[in-house]
Amino acid sequence: MSSDTHAAPANGASAAPGDAPVPFRWRWCAFAVILLATMMDILDSLVTTVAGPSIRADLGGSTTVIQWLTAGYTLAMASGLIIGGRLGDLFGRKRMFLVGVAGFVICSVLCGAAQDPAMLVGFRVVQGLFGAVMIPQGLGLIKELFPPAELPLAFGSIGPVVGLANISGPLVGGWLVDADFFGTGWRMIFLINLPLGLVCLIAGARLLPTAARTVSRLDLVGAATVAVAALLMVFPLVQGRELGWPAWTFASIAASVALFAFFGWYEARRQRSGGDPLVLPSLFRKRAFSGALVSGALMFCALIGFSLVFTLYLQLGLGYSPLRAALATLPQVIGSAVTALVAGRTGLAVRYGRRLIHLGVAAMAAGVGLLYLAVRLQGDHVHALWFAPALLLIGVGMGLAMSSLYFTVNTTAQPHESGSASGTFTAVQQLSGALGVAVIGTVFFGVLGGQVAARAADQAPHLRTQLAAAGISPAGQEQITAVLRDCERDRAVAEDAADLPPSCGRLRTALEGTPAAAAAVDRAGAQAAQRGFADSFERVLAVLAGLLALAFAVAFALPRARPSGTFAGSPE
Fold first, then answer.
1. Which 8-state DSSP code applies to residue 286?
2. How far is CA 528 from CA 61, 135, 387, 491, in A?
3. Where does residue 274 rank: exposed (0-12), middle (13-18), buried (19+ CB within 10 A)?
4. pLDDT: is 131 or 274 the higher one?
5. Where are the domains of the chain?
6. Spatial CA neighbour of 172 closest among 317, 39, 35
7. Which of 150, 567, 552, 157 has its CA nearest to residue 340?
8. Closest by alpha carbon to 171, among 311, 340, 312, 367?
9. Which among 52, 39, 18 has a CA at the least distance from the CA of 308?
10. Residue-level pLDDT at 549
11. Distance of alpha carbon 412 from its chain centroid, rounded?
């Protein structure tokens, strides 16, 4: 099976002078390999959102471990993606694609064998770096595989696949954890990459075309600058709450902003001096590219952060199993996949431009509003069915907005900009996901202890009545209700879920020999925790609504619609 570029005739005959190049014979099979690798990467960036509580229960660690399982991976991806695209330009996209897949699979197996949280997070970071080598090569190869007439169909097919992978990640993770194949538990979410990766390696080696190299050297200064800037931004956002927000966390964020500004100046200066910049400044002079980049960043920040917090609310707040929590998101999966498929196949992005993004963001915002009402009005009796209409709306909005964003970004770059464009957009997507996990996760865990404690205090009058009926003295009632409030707060924010907070130990001692009182306290504590998780989730939904409002406003920077017949290289 041939692996030549598509410029060579598929039947071996020479093209006549002036004839258009014959398309690469195996282009759709090669495209399937690229999509499989893309799905494998996206699934791995999301599966830990639903498996996080199970991983923490097995390996230990604080609540920040759950955040780092996702944020560490996406941060590494964001830091490495831009240079990953340029590695393909320097050494050949096919070669670097295969290197990325091989490293990704090896690190997946190491993640599945990890014995403590630090080891797992470390392997996740390295896995993300190899993913950063793998992903941009595939996006760059698509333009080499297809003739211009077929590019809209190819790029239109990416949106549904990416949308499905983004939402089905938690679903697959929940199924694998609950299925407990061969007694592996959560470890199977990583080990499943071994057969998938081998398929990518074997098929990629035979099917992918070998492309010409387009740059002579790497921009190592730019790569180091953007990696350090991303780390300085995400690390304090994840760790700051646990450390009490010392002054250095704010200094780190300020330094990150300064470094990103320096990166922009340095890249422009490098291009003016005749060097090969990591990111081509010409991309940001295209209104469509810049608008799609910022609007997409806000949406990814909101949606990835939402995925983490929603599954935590379902599992820790409502007591769902990993599989049941994942199944609760099924309406969002269906809405996103079907809508993105229809939008991509019917060319809605071409015809409606930014209006499709506005419609999608509006649908997502309406879904967030319905979700807020479901949690607010149903209280302790909320059922997964109450979430379905809201999640369906969010999924429909995602499908509409993302299909338009991917089409806009992938069709505004000139051929010589494609590697930089794909690397930049995917890097921003991943960095936004890391920021979403950091910011939204920090908001959630930051208010959780206080909300649970407040709900425990609300339970006090009714609990005192039950304690009195159980023969507890008034002084004992006051002591128990006070310690219950402390216990539930400490349990919600415990650094290690396996450790019993001292306040809970005091509560257990105070209830010894009084089974009726202990049962009443257990019921009150469970209700306080459930309602406190709901209150914290409501705060997160307010943050999501704000991010979506910003994305809606930024989308006005995009052109209304792409003129009929235009594609790559549009000046917009």
1. S
2. 24, 44, 21, 12
3. exposed
4. 131
5. 222-277, 451-531
6. 39
7. 157
8. 311
9. 52
10. 93
11. 24
Which two structure tokens, joined as six digits, stand for 539? 């705060």
Distance CA 135, CA 141 (A): 10
Structural contact between residues 276 and 217, judged by C-beta atoms closer than 8 angstroms:
yes
Q: Which two tokens stand for residue 13?
A: 């005959």
Structure tokens at 14: 């020479």
Tokens 């770059």 belong to 413
- Amino acid 112 reads G
Q: Is the pTM of this model over 0.70?
A: yes
Cβ(338)–Cβ(402) below 8 Å: no
Which of 252, 259, 251 minimizes the C-alpha distance to 233?
A: 252
Rounded to a whole number, what is the distance in angstroms from the first to the last CA of the chain? Answer: 39
Is there a contact between 78 and 206 (Cβ–Cβ < 8 Å)?
no
The structure tokens listed for 27 are 């282009």
d(CA 411, CA 246): 44
Instruction: Please say whether the beta carbons of 405 and 343 come within 8 A.
Output: no
Count CB neighbours of 505 within 10 A: 12
Give the pLDDT score at 10: 37
Taking only the tens place, the pLDDT of each residue in 423-472 is 677 778 778 888 888 889 888 888 888 888 888 888 888 888 888 888 88
Contact predicate 94/209, CB 8 Å: yes
Would you tell me how many other CB atoms lie within 10 Å of the CB of residue 351?
12
How would you class 300 by CB atoms within 10 Å of its CB: exposed for 0-12, middle for 13-18, buried for 19 or more?
Answer: buried
Can you state the angle between helices 93-112 and 63-91, rounded to 10 degrees? 160
